[in-house]
């Protein structure tokens, strides 16, 4: 990893791409697929976070979570702008990911304010970690955009503080949230596998099939280990077992 | 009406306020109340428009309406910033208006995509017209802010185009939407009366009790006539009777 060590903190040994690589139709389709998945994810997050915000017990919390949602929408708009720059129809690009992402949100529909916060704290973070790893594989302008839209706008800290308060106030909450956290990570992995199996364009970006680009099997295992470890650390930070 | 004829297009003869008038506690409380009502309205609009967007038949429309909602949230944030500038707690300022505004939205809960669009096209426009008239009564910085947040960000045209398409495609839609439009204006007037009866601080801003500031009875009647006429014109533009 020579020149872009600062923008990619992980020990990934993949060969860096340049903007010129976008001339390669396979690579270009992979980048477009990644942006499409990310954009659709942000759009659905916007709707589900607004829905969760509406269940907030306090007006102040309602507004704080609405603000998180609005940030997601802004990210959506920027990803769509990049897709247009690359000359593709954003709606068509997002469509193949609708089923997996909708199913994920459908299966982890939160039934309370605290479950909604756990989706933000644990669920969004897993997705963010995964996409941030993928950012290492794309051209520099796309990478900057992806890293920028994945930047935490304070929502993780907000959700963590609220969850900590609730766990301290009522000991029985911890068990239920630990269970919910395990469900979030389980459903995330299951939908990620589904996408990996169905979306050749995305997997050809992520997996090195001998071209020297993408993750080899060892790197992929380390990547998932990092994501799982980070999830465990987040749960432990709340005093929960992952 | 001498110096501010450009910022107030209506033939209102109220005496203009200056920023120094904010030293007057009665005037200041009136301005704060107006901003509070407006801010709470924008916040609730954000949630209801997102809810309506979620019922859009096409992803494209879903996004277009979500974008309208995000604009409302931005307006909310700017109104709250002005309330903080004036040294008041935004949540406390909004609280007295929660019941009337919540009731309004509750009574006109749209049950379809087209009803949701009519809320944007007809309902929001009535509220906007009313607040724009009120802007004539406040200090210049507050007036600029109110006028700016009331600026149409394309949502009325978007809703109008969609509604026109639907009416052309299916003649039976017209009758139902005409009925819905009448309900929107009826509920708006009824909640406005409720606020006027309950919120002394706001009415003391709007109504001239002999101080020379605020609308006298004749001006108030003309104001409501203008708002009703504008509503009728909007309905007729869709080929509907108001």
From TrEMBL, chains A, B:
The domain of life is Bacteria
Checking InterPro entries in the record gives: Ferritin-like, Ferritin-like_SF, Ferritin_actino
Q: Which Pfam families match?
A: MiaE_2 (PF13794)
Q: Which residues form the Ferritin-like domain?
A: 27-208
How is this protein named in the record? Hydroxylase
Q: Where does this protein come from, organism-wise?
A: Leekyejoonella antrihumi
